[in-house]
Amino acid sequence: MLHGLLDQAAAPEAKRVLTNSILNSVREMNAAMPAVLPFLLRLAGDPQVPAQGGLLDLVVSIAGFSEPIDGRNEAMVHWFGSDSDHPEREQCRAVFAENASVVATLAEQADSPDARAKLRQAAGLL
Predict the structure, then answer these.
(1) Which of 55, 84, 110, 122 sits CB 3.0–4.6 Å from 96 for a disulfide?
(2) How far apart are the first and last CA of the chain?
(3) CA–CA gap between residue 11 and residue 4 (Å, rounded)
(4) What is the distance, to the nearest Å, from the Cα of residue 122 to the centroid of all Cα atoms in its chain?
(5) What's this model's pTM, rounded to 2 decimal places?
(6) CA distances from residue 55 to 37, 51, 116 in whole angstroms, order as listed
(7) DSSP helix/strand/coil, 23
């Protein structure tokens, strides 16, 4: 699927399938996300990639999914699960931090102040 993102004709479908594969639902990401994220960060920052804009939006979503859940908030834990049940959140934050320079560049390309802040926070830049 990652390779399909590089092909002009296949990129829209590859992005759709990839998104469906790495997001289990509107509330959680797949445990494989930390392994895929380094590639998505680089592809989202490459203007030669046909699906670049959509990938940037996906990376912003992943940053949101990566935010820690306050274990004292029963409603949040009920809907999103505890951080101990979802180690991929912390693993993704580590990937964002390891790639902070790439994430900083992506944040500058983001459309909204909220998206920029979400990316910066995920990478520990705030």
Answers:
(1) 122
(2) 32
(3) 6
(4) 9
(5) 0.88
(6) 11, 6, 14
(7) strand
Structure confidence by residue, pLDDT tens digits, 41-55 = 999 999 999 989 899
Q: How far apart are CA 22 and CA 28, in angstroms?
A: 9
SS3 29: strand
Distance between CA 68 and CA 6 in Å, rounded? 32
Alpha-carbon radius of gyration of the chain: 14
| Cα–Cα dist 71/33, whole Å | 22
Dist. CA 73–CA 59, nearest whole Å: 26
Residues 6+ apart with CB under 8 A from 6: 43, 49, 50
| Residue with tokens 């594969």, as numbered in its chain | 21
Residue 28 corresponds to which tokens in the numbers above?
């959680």
- How many residues belong to the chain? 126
Q: Does residue 117 contact residue 108 with C-beta atoms inside 8 Å?
A: no
pLDDT digits (tens, 9 = 90+) for 65-117: 898 888 888 988 888 777 788 899 999 999 999 999 999 999 999 999 999 99
